[in-house]
Specification:
Helix 2 crosses helix 3. The protein is α+β, with helices and mostly antiparallel strands. It has two domains: 114 residues, Aminotransferase class 4, branched-chain amino acid transferase, N-terminal domain (D-amino Acid Aminotransferase, Chain A, domain 1), CATH 3.30.470; 155 residues, Alpha-Beta Barrel (D-amino Acid Aminotransferase, Chain A, domain 2). The chain is globular, with a radius of gyration of 19 Å. The protein contains seven helices and 15 strands. The strands form two sheets. Strands 7, 8, 9, 10, 11, 12, 13, 14 and 15 form a nine-stranded mixed sheet that branches. The chain has a six-stranded antiparallel sheet with strand order 2-1-6-5-3-4. 26% of the residues lie in helices and 30% in strands.
C-alpha cells in the first residue's frame, strides 16, 4: 500500500462498519478539526498480533475521559474493530491507528457536548520510523518548544492537540537535516522527542526522564521491564540538559520508533553501543514472542 493517505485501496472501520478507504471522510465542520477534540493510539501488529492491544484500547478510553468525552464503543468492541481491519486489508505486520473525536453536530463553538463522538480504525504497512537510524543512530535537533505543565494540559492523554508543538519541532529539525527533535519540559528538564520517549546510558546504568508532564509510553514501560529483567539499573529521574555531555549512549522508544539508537543531539554525540543494540534486539524478540 502506498500513495497519499486519502487515496489508497483497502478498508477502514468507521463507527461500527468497514468502509472503502477513499470514502472514510468527515465533514469540514467536524469539531475536532477546529478545536482538537480528538485522541488516538498508534499500535503495531507483528505476525498478525497487535502488541499490547488491549492496553492501547484502554488508554484510548482513558485519554478521551481526560479531554471530557466518552467513546461509545467498549474496549472489546475496539479490539474487534482492529482485528476486522487487519483481516479486511490482509495485513500481518502493520501499523494500526485508532482515533476518536467529536464530530459535526449541533455545536460549533468551543463547547461541543451535543456533538456525536466518532471512532475509526485504520491500518497500513509501515517500516522503520527513522529509516536507517536503527543502524547508524538518529540525529536530533533541540526544540525551542517545551512540553507544558500538567496544570496547562492533560499531559497523560494521547490527545491530538498536544502534538501541535511536536509537529513544529519536527519540521524545524528536518529543515536542519535531523530526524527528530529533543524537547525539554516547562521547567527546563529533558523530556522526550516529538513522538518517542528517551533513554540514556552512563557507566552501564540507564537514565530516563520522569514522565510527569508527558506520556509514559507503553513501549517505554516495556523497555524498562526488559532492562530490569537483565539486571540493569534504571534511574527514572529529572535530567538536566547539561548532563547530555556525560552520557555515552542514547535511544528512543515508541510504537512507531520501536527502539532506535541516537547518534547525536545538537552538539552532543553518542555511541551506538552494545546496550542500545542489545535492548533493541530484546524488544524485537519480545514483541514477536
Amino acid at each position: 500500500m502506498a500513495g497519499a493517505y486519502d487515496d489508497r485501496d483497502g478498508k477502514i472501520w468507521m463507527d461500527g462498519q468497514l468502509v472503502d478507504w477513499r470514502t472514510a471522510n468527515v465533514h469540514i465542520l467536524t469539531h475536532a478539526l477546529h478545536y482538537a477534540s480528538s485522541v488516538f493510539e498508534g499500535e503495531r501488529a507483528y505476525g498478525g498480533r497487535i502488541f499490547l492491544s488491549r492496553a492501547h484500547s484502554q488508554r484510548l478510553h482513558d485519554s478521551a475521559g481526560m479531554i471530557d468525552f466518552e467513546i461509545p464503543y467498549s474496549v472489546d468492541q475496539i479490539e474487534a474493530a482492529k482485528a476486522a481491519v487487519l483481516e479486511a486489508n490482509g495485513l500481518s505486520d502493520a501499523y494500526v491507528r485508532a482515533v476518536a473525536w467529536r464530530g459535526a453536530g449541533e455545536d460549533m463553538g468551543v463547547a461541543s457536548a451535543r456533538n456525536p463522538v466518532r471512532l475509526a480504525v485504520a491500518a497500513w504497512e509501515w517500516g522503520a520510523y527513522y529509516g536507517d537510524a536503527k543502524t547508524r543512530g538518529a540525529t536530533l535537533d533541540i526544540s525551542r518548544w517545551r512540553r507544558p505543565s500538567p496544570e496547562t494540559a492533560p499531559s497523560q492523554a494521547k490527545a491530538a492537540g498536544l502534538y501541535m508543538i511536536c509537529t513544529m519541532s519536527k519540521h524545524a529539525a528536518e529543515a536542519k537535516g535531523c530526524g527528530d527533535a529533543l524537547m525539554f519540559d516547562y521547567r527546563g528538564y529533558v523530556a522526550e522527542a516529538t513522538g518517542a520517549n528517551i533513554f540514556f546510558v552512563r557507566d552501564g546504568e540507564v537514565h530516563t526522564p520522569t514522565p510527569d508532564c508527558f506520556l509514559d509510553g507503553l513501549t517505554r514501560q516495556t523497555v524498562i521491564t526488559l532492562l530490569k529483567e537483565r539486571g540493569i539499573k534504571v534511574h527514572e529521574r529529572y535530567i538536566m540538559p547539561e548532563e547530555l555531555e556525560d552520557f555515552q549512549q542514547c535511544w528512543l522508544t515508541g510504537t512507531a520508533a520501536e527502539v532506535t539508537p541516537v547518534g547525536r543531539i545538537g552538539d552532543y554525540a553518542f555511541e551506538v553501543g552494545d546496550m542500545a543494540r542489545d535492548i533493541a534486539r530484546a524488544y524485537e524478540a519480545h514483541v514477536r514472542a
